[in-house]
Amino acid sequence: GCMQSGPPPPVLDGIQLTLPAGKVTALVGPSGGGKTTAAHLIARFHDVDVTSAGGVTLDGLDLRQISPTWLRREVVGLVTQEPVLLSGTVSDNIAYGRPGASAAAVEAAARAANAHGFIQDLPNGYDTELREGGGLSVGQRQRIAIARALLKDPKVLVMDEPTSALDSESEKSVQQALDRLAAGRTTLVVAHRLSTVRNSDQIAVLHGGRVVERGTHDELLARGGEYAAMVSANERYESLRS
């Protein structure tokens, strides 16, 4: 057979999506549909190809005109499924996005992230040295990452699969912390677990790099399309698990 070479097809194709200010938008859809790519564009881990007509704008400004470092430091907060902790104290980790934050501010963020309790149980509390997150569960690391984002207080929040690696007990605690973090903030959530997106202000279903449906949970259920099919498949799966 002959080999076809040439540029790979775009991961996102003709996608039109507006994230309303102060609201939560959830991206759902099959793996490989472009959800994580969309999230990465907002934090400028990827850029829209200059040769394409597309672009990502923030308050009307093309993100490609903004320094990625400044964008991630000043504007965008990121919570991912594999929280990155740095060598240093718990307190250093939480204050990473806001160096010089007071101990009271660090503790307030930890309380809001449901992290204060387990931090107090650590050998030296907030002064406990973390070595690349050693000794903490995924759920605990996740809550420290959420406390860090709360303290940073970003304008735009991008959450990529934040609860996918958690058991149901720590998922509840982390989900509650995430809800506090997203409240009143322009937020994009990439989700596999449909339980996490039910209360979003807007849900967009991405399939093959295109938005095939958008609306609230109830609107999309009533439409009986792809999202409704995902929800019923998910409910069958959950009932088998329980």
TrEMBL record:
Gene Ontology terms, MF aspect: ABC-type oligopeptide transporter activity; ATP binding; ATP hydrolysis activity
A GO term from the CC aspect: mitochondrial inner membrane
InterPro entries tied to this protein: AAA+_ATPase, ABC_transporter-like_ATP-bd, ABC_transporter-like_CS, P-loop_NTPase, Type_1_exporter
Main location: membrane
Keywords: ATP-binding, Membrane, Nucleotide-binding, Transmembrane, Transmembrane helix
Domain of life: Eukaryota
Biological process, per Gene Ontology: oligopeptide export from mitochondrion
PROSITE patterns to which the protein is assigned, alphabetical: ABC_TRANSPORTER_1 (PS00211), ABC_TRANSPORTER_2 (PS50893)
Protein localization: Membrane
Gene3D superfamilies: P-loop containing nucleotide triphosphate hydrolases (3.40.50.300)
Domain ABC transporter: 3-233
A Pfam family hit: ABC_tran
UniProt xrefs under PANTHER family: ATP-BINDING CASSETTE SUB-FAMILY B MEMBER 10, MITOCHONDRIAL, ATP-DEPENDENT PERMEASE MDL1, MITOCHONDRIAL
Full protein name: ABC transporter domain-containing protein
Organism from which the protein derives: Haptolina ericina
